[in-house]
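So, who can interpret the following?
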Amino acid sequence: MALEQNQSTDYYYEENEMNGTYDYSQYEMICIKEEVRNFAKVFLPAFFTIAFILGLAGNSIVVAIYAYYKKQRTKTDVYILNLAVADLLLLFTLPFWAVNAVHGWILGKMMCKATSALYTVNFVSGMQFLACISIDRYWAVTKAPSQSGVGKPCWIICFCVWTAAILLSIPHLVFYTVNDNMRCITIFPHHLGKYMKASIQILEICIGFVIPFLIMGVCYSLTARTLIKMPNIKKARPLKVLLTVVIVFIVTQLPYNIVKLCQAIDTIFFLITDCDMSKRMDVAIQITESIALFHSCLNPILYVFMGASFKNYIMKVAKKYGSWRRQRQNVEEIPFDSEGPTEPTSSFTI
């Protein structure tokens, strides 16, 4: 996680010091960040617990419905299913980071690498699948809908998204480790140094935010314009959904990526030389990254529960489960010595 790199930074170095071998005992500690760590110990576990519970509930329902009940899937359905899987895998890393904020990393170097890579894979792929959904919705509104269902190109796109996210996570597998303070952070070789770190951060910003944001902005703008021009249809609700999706994406992702970009620039040019400013930057990355993570809890609401089709499947499952419960209760109420026929139970309706 980006915030882990900052919580352990207690020293400032001049640019010519970045190429040498560090002996930390020779440098004066000029910025003690104990209050930053204390803030993380309280804020991160509380926030991650809420996000984990809400996100696990919503995305699990999405995966269950699409995997077991909805047999005829569209391209958007496939993208939403992949998005829910990515969100779930991302949420499963949060308990580890919550424990890390309080007690430090106690699971060893390999788990540090694996958890960091898993976090990056699913965070980036989730943003990419949001872009795929916007493209498919644009084609559904502006072009004649295809009757062929999910084709090979859809699965190729999903494969490419996962592959790109996995490739972007390779630096986490290589450079993440556990330091002497029991923190899971990135440590780059001295010959790679600041430019490698900044390049990786900028690449993550481009693939995980800039490209999806541009695609979503263009597709949803064209979709909204097409809906407005269409006669004799109810336009208010689709337009509100599109506007809500874009606003939520901007509110949750833009602050985090702005702070991350500032970090990348500071990595190269050493602009932050004040201790208080460094502390504020650390707290800012903790808060903004947590808000960005919360988008995984909102995805089921934005992309699934607002849709009439998915709500119909929820209703069918509820009716089926209600009917099964009614039948079971009716059977359980029959005495063991009863030999008479039982009355059939009526189906549960909502």
